[in-house]
């Protein structure tokens, strides 16, 4: 054995010339300097260039600084996908503060909890949500008086009131357009805070850092081969995992952000055509709405649009239907804890030869690690032994890499727990196929155990979605004396559908093993969380009672 | 003022679950796992998949380990662009060793200096270079006996001998195809060593690290919007700044590397068509050769190919000529010290409206920082004050960012000197245009000062290149009693050219200010360094004597 050669460590040190902490803020500065006139943000009649967006972000950072906001403070945002929300993704971290994007569909209690837990010093809030925000502010303890800034969006025509001291436009006018911001001293520094929408218990505050935000923003480009000047439609809320880091991605590709205050199917088709949108993201529910749009609305489409689909396991039928509509979908998967998608169903050219159903089945698998995720495995949660790659043995999904969160804010117990064994525990159950692609079978808590056999509720839902009259479906366990549990389905039918419970069960039996077929089907609308996730715990109670 | 909120630092620590050092090695593992059958490397009749390339790199790492090579050791490679060279870019760093790619055009003295300076423990050498390598090995001091492994490439049909103990193919058979390599413990760790081809004095050893190699590999993708499965032709030597980090880039995009032992214009056009090459890089001299290929060779071209052009300031005439030939060129600029290109002439769509000459003039500017370079400026070298953005005031180019080298091996004085003031000093002289694009005017030592006026030799060369009978041109200072210095041009004419010295001077006067027009033009062939750089110091001596 030779001894270690130290020539490669001596005198080869980090200096400001050869080491700069990674931060996505660099992309905005670059976009504004190199392509100052290129359109950065479109919102109704508003069009902002990269120079203007940069200037507005600097004004915001400066105005916050003048109000005493400093490094490490929290700035909360209760905003839809509008220019102010985009600017906050840069302006807030410019001064070392942390942006906490609030889910605009939450109730006052949840918002009040978050404002208190995050110790928010400033709240940027849109007039549309003033009712909830007003109540939430009233719930804050005495003495806690955050600075409230109202966004009075000219594109919003509904009711509401202005709660705070100033409007956002007036507030940023206080700021210096040439504000001298600085990159973080350390790339391991918090940049944003996202509360998970737990279906029970208090939400947990997921903290992202500059390094991860930078790398995941780049990963989106690599995973999607996103070209320079892509045009991105904001169907995905920016409050959801910071829009999967796409605010920063769009600055890196010097693209154009097309804002949307809400999901309106006709408006989406119109704006795709008008702005020549190239890319968008959405949960299956958004894709489902687009797929089921009236024919005359779908006829507005003029070109192929790339879509990321994630947020829950997408039924193969939705993927197939969207592709028929001229959308090219890439299936991605992740959690709030992994900066949004960190797993991608990478496509293989030879799969193009397969028929549409086979293709959509392959595409419904979650896939493989994206470029910046370093490790992904399906393993036994007790000992972290990877399961065999047989497409059958179920295990939990574990991840590790630079796009795994710093941890949960003020919750070291939960942080340590989810990182046990040096892997992040996702709580999702999956199999690993022989080609290394993982496929989610269920959330740990959703799996049905019937007569000792595991039943993936996703597999049963997939069968239901294949029926042409089914709009939405959710399957949960129903207690059963004989079998322990049996599958119970909740189904929303399309308008004018005629299928009966018996017919739908018979249809399922053509697709599923007998024991996996729902023993009961209830036609109803499905209760959802504010992020569009179906609230299975409510359905479980209903199944139990029925 | 509020006090610092520490919630965002307490309990939010780096763990193996959420922090992994950056290394380009991750891209190979990913390519081999996700696309095992996709073609990674093409070399004549040889076609290797990503699974095979990964296996061969692991065998190499394992075989080296079994011979006692450890973390921090140097492995030298005297190889053309062939599979072994590609594999060495992964196999060597897999065990923590440092790859020193040697310039295959150097003489034995220079090679011996490098082998000694780097303390290379192993040498991978191609039979074609056995003459030089044999002499170099004989020059090494007693007792220094590196392990010599010969590459006996079946695509090489020339002479030479096998110098070492084993051939590369036999050597890697010693290794374990399942070798358990590991990512570096620290991303600030040396990965490769590249000696600069100084025209005088001993070469300096530029050290790259895993972090920089990873980021610059990604930067190539962002800067060029390189899609997945790009097909890259290896016209650029991999020994030159590690092929500008493209070995790692190609693994990240799961592309195909098309090898080339040497620059052969017909072969290049043939292989572009046969392998559907999408991208290639080269110094202006390579592009010049492609542009001046016989018409029947150029007729082989079937599709648009993207080219990076860099290595020296490219004459606008070459850019214009190549684009007429169906190449789409992106001009990039960098130094060995910046991992190859770190500056890119980003194109603006509105420039498409300009005529070809105006376009090629814009494209001949070096441009702006690429995504991973954090700072770029033209400044006064004495006080680092940026020059005005007037396109006229000359200053030195300074850079800073993660794609600036760790430093020079065993040369702390030169390292400190080039990082003075926390910026990397490039030694290149440039102006900065009002749009922030920089344009190189000269190397510090090449500038001509005539009657107190600076003359950019590049500007004069550009004028000469515009003459249709000029193949190559270089301009240097010639001592002059009255003016101090005057421009002296050395020109190689195309076959059958008839232009005289007087006619060429008259042509220059139509393009240049009178004082910039060469006072003397010498028709000759140009002396070049092994990397194709024109050796201006030899021309200066010749100009002085003439």
Give a written overview of the molecule.
The structure is a homodimer of 546-residue chains. The first copy, chain A, is an alpha/beta fold. Chain A folds into 3 domains: 25-216, Rossmann fold; 263-443, Rossmann fold; 448-545, GMP Synthetase, Chain A, domain 3, CATH 3.30.300.30. The first copy, chain A, contains 18 helices and 26 strands. Chain A has a 9-stranded mixed beta sheet with strand order 2-1-11-10-12-13-14-15-16, with helices on both faces. In chain A, strands 7-6-5-3-4-8-9-19 form an 8-stranded mixed beta sheet, sandwiched between helices. In chain A, helix 17 links the parallel strand 25 (484-493) and strand 26 (520-523). Chains A and B meet through helix 1, helix 7, strand 16 and strand 18 of A and helix 1, helix 7, strand 16 and strand 18 of B.
Q: Biggest sheet of chain A: strands side by side, in what order?
A: 2-1-11-10-12-13-14-15-16
The main sheet of chain A comes to: 9 strands, mixed
Do you know the CATH topology of the largest domain in chain A?
Rossmann fold
Number of helices of chain A: 18
In short:
Chain A has 546 residues and is α/β, with parallel strands linked by helices. Chain A is globular.
Question: Could you list some keywords that capture this structure?
Answer:
homodimer, alpha/beta, Rossmann fold, 3 domains, nine-stranded mixed sheet, eight-stranded mixed sheet
Question: SSE layout and pairings?
Answer:
Two copies of one chain form a homodimer.
Chain A: H1 25-34, E1 39-43, E2 46-49, H2 50-66, E3 74-78, H3 83-94, E4 98-101, H4 108-118, E5 120-126, H5 130-139, E6 147-151, E7 166-167, H6 168-173, E8 190-195, E9 205-209, H7 210-224, E10 231-233, H8 241-244, H9 246-252, E11 256-258, H10 265-275, E12 279-282, H11 284-291, H12 295-298, E13 305-309, H13 316-324, E14 327-335, E15 340-344, H14 356-363, E16 368-369, E17 373-379, E18 395-401, E19 407-408, H15 412-418, E20 424-432, E21 438-443, E22 448-450, E23 453-455, H16 457-465, E24 470-480, E25 484-493, H17 501-509, E26 520-523, H18 536-545
Parallel strand pairs in A: 1-11, 3-4, 3-5, 4-8, 5-6, 6-7, 10-11, 10-12, 12-13, 13-14, 25-26
Antiparallel strand pairs in A: 1-2, 8-9, 9-19, 14-15, 15-16, 17-18, 18-20, 20-21, 22-23, 24-25
Helix pairs in contact in A: 1-2, 1-9, 2-3, 4-5, 7-9, 11-13, 13-14
